[in-house]
UniProtKB/TrEMBL annotation:
Protein name in UniProt: Alanine racemase
InterPro entries linked: Ala_racemase, Ala_racemase/Decarboxylase_C, Ala_racemase_C, Ala_racemase_N, Ala_racemase_pyridoxalP-BS, PLP-binding_barrel
Entries under SMART domains matching the protein: Ala_racemase_C
Reactions performed catalytically: L-alanine = D-alanine
Amino acid sequence: MPRPITATIHIDAMQHNLARARACAPGAKVWGVLKANGYGHGLERAMRGLAAADGLALVEPDNAVRLRELGWTGPVLLLEGPFDAADIAMMAQYGVNGAIHCDAQLALLEAARPSRPVDVHLKMNTGMNRLGFKPEAFAAAHARLRALPHVGEITLMTHFANADDAAHPRLTLHEQVRRFRAGAQGLPGPVSLSNSAGTLKTLELGDELASHWIRPGIMLYGGTPGGQTAAAFGLKPAMTLASEIISTQDIVAGDCVGYGSRFQADGAMRIGVVACGYADGYPRHAPEGTPVLVDGVRTRLVGRVSMDMLTVDLTHVPGARVGSRVVLWGEGMPIDDVAQASGTIGYELMCALAQRVRVVEG
Ligand SMILES: *Cc1c(COP(=O)(O)O)cnc(C)c1O
């Protein structure tokens, strides 16, 4: 028998969440973002879950090719664009769109003689200071692209730093949009603005965030970028990580649990040992009190997470025994709650699902 830990991928939840994204931004086309192996859900499974998207976006050139091999015939977008000349040739061969965000990429594209024209996303840096041309350099970069016979459609894009906290004192969403509109003024071409956070904000801000394309990722997998809960937005978890209790221990005041004896009982307790550890992708830094669902009852992690096991408090789950079902995150246990307790984000937990965990669909 394999270890009882299983990640169940809910294809129907991705379909549902994609519909939610569309409802947030009516009229916009949707790039379903499936970088990082579909946020840990598997590239092929994410491709099926997001089959109704208008295009699929990622950052790995080899996986762009893989999408074509898997039969995806719709648009594909490389969010970091090409890394070398071979990637531009690949983009032409496989009909892959790519971001152009810096002078080095522009030069690469100017030197290229691809077999067919390539469509690109010209990216503006509106304050995130990661990728993109400054607003004042944007029109010139656009003109250089327009001068190339082997460049097809040019989409205008930017990326938001704080769409989940739109009034951020250092950089408001409003200011990023203002810079984008100013830098892109008068330039033709479709516009692509929002990630999940921006998409969810579109419900409130409406026209200000209007664009031809949105680029949701995390919301499609049932996580949120921050702020409200996934359930409040009507999103369903696309991954349930579940395992079982494989042992129980009755302990008394003064007894400790696990490595480093981090947890010490101050009274009689029952401890459950779960077949899930950091080598499965559960965060080792999860503190005491991180929520865990046992037999449908919300309880707490106690003691340090070890490689293959973690320990939970069963004192108030009297029916729990060896074989009881434990949900680490997913259905019944929002991944954002686990992430927040552990000082991280749902994105990191999903993406870190380990190779050894058996994956099923359901
Ligand atoms: C990852 C990514 C997204 C999706 O972000 P989420 O927060 O997961 O919605 C959108 N646009 C770009 C450029 C990205 O890199």
